Amino acid sequence: MAPTDEYAKRTPAENPQNIMLKPEQKAEGNNSGKEKDVNYVVEWYSDEDPENPQNWTGLKKAIVLFQLCAYTMAVYGASSMYVPGEEDVMREFHVGATPAALGLAVYVAGYGIGPLVFAPLSEIASVGRNWVYIPTFFLFVILSIPTATVKNFAGLLVLRFLTGFFGSPCLANGGASVGDIYPALQIPIYLSCWTAVWFWGPAIGPVVAGFAVQAKGWRWGLWEIVWLTAPLVLLLSFALPETSADNILHRRAARLRKITGRKDILAASEIAQAQLTTGDVVWDALIKPMEIMIKDPAVLFTNIYTSLTYGIYYSFFEAFPLVYPQIYGFNIGETGLCFLTIGIACLIGISIFYTYQFCYLLPEIRKNGPRAPEHRLVPALFAVITLSAGYFMFGWTVRSDIHWIVSLIGVVILVTSNFLIFQSVFVYLPMSYPKYAASLFAANDLCRSVFAVACILFARPMFENLGIGGGVSLLAGLSCLGIAGMFALWKYGAWLRSKSSFASS
Questions:
Q1: pLDDT for 271-286, tens place per residue?
Q2: Tens-digit pLDDT profile for residues 363-407
Q3: 504 located within any domain
Q4: Rounded Cα gap, residues 317 and 311, in angstroms
Q5: Which residues form the signal peptide (predicted)?
Q6: Are residues 73 and 13 in the same domain?
Q7: Bridge partners, residue 266, by sequence
Q8: What is the pTM (predicted TM-score) of this model?
Q9: How many domains does the chain have?
Q10: Which of 52, 367, 439, 468 is the most buried (most CB within 10 A)?
């Protein structure tokens, strides 16, 4: 395929002389005498191809990671920016505490269901990440406007569900985007930044909205969602590059077909996905995540345990409005500031995780080669023990004769423990079945969100009936349920995978 003068002037990405001539032959029927079709597969031009996201500069990768983190924090923060205004919602719409909590619960349900649609959609080469991220985020911003102005309670719940649903792509695919741009050994390091912001997001919401709600009412807190996310969606639209390698090569193949007029120049993903039917896509979206979870006991345990932990985490923060205003006399804004302890806890968690990665695991890998996925669970082995201690410390130190800082130290301990558990599991899951990472995350997100919805609704009545000490002690006891399971997963995880009916299939 010698280029003409016109083609020779084109950029390397569009120059036919750079096509990787890797033929893929496919026989027509069973007649070996028939001529075979040959497709030429477009690949990276070299190991240093600048269009490969893995080869981007450190600065470009950092900018992409920053945008993903900001996007994720905005969506998660929007979930809890509603919470400081719940009392106002109760008064305006004449509903009780449990119905008012539905404003948070349905949002969480929305971003639990969304990944089942958006995770597999982003894996289609012709779609990629950005065609999922940006249009849905635009819808998120647009729907946030009527959410702040709605005049009836049913409409508020519907709009909160829809904003959660359309905000979910970053929660489903953010980790996959991190994997697009960083090599395998570095993924746990940079994934921890993304994990930290989605972990901190629900906590930062009350900090942002607390004083606004106190001064202007509950609608003002929802307007802040619009003001924060509208500039961000514009930033993503103009500054976030596509990170999906399949999508980049798909578009490269399309350019080359247009330039050369040849129809046999294809990306590998086009060949692989040519036979996919709508049923296949639906299967991958809805059935595959559940199939893996049911057939693999290790995956089933991690989903159950993280769901329990996540639900307890959400339930726990329902205690804040009952503790700091009533026992310590904090106003709404000051109560929101208590959530800043979660940011401190995330920084401590990242420091512990990095220490384990850089001082033990990475040197071990360089010396002895890749380790089993269970080695990623080591930080969680300590965290499952300290988690309960943090809950007990908070529950039994929230008294008027004990300074409020003591209870917040308990918050730091339990949030640090939660962070280490989730970070370890989020690295462990895709390493167990790399091919099905999107399905694993979608199933985990759905399980966590469904359980969190239930916990949000029963948390306030639980604290009112059992008291803060009794309610938090119950949560601490429930968190102990996973201790033996986490140690068993660490010790027998490889054996469980070998016995998994999904792995054998």
A1: 877 777 767 766 766 6
A2: 988 888 888 888 889 999 999 999 999 999 999 999 989 999 999
A3: no
A4: 10
A5: none
A6: no
A7: 41
A8: 0.84
A9: 3
A10: 439
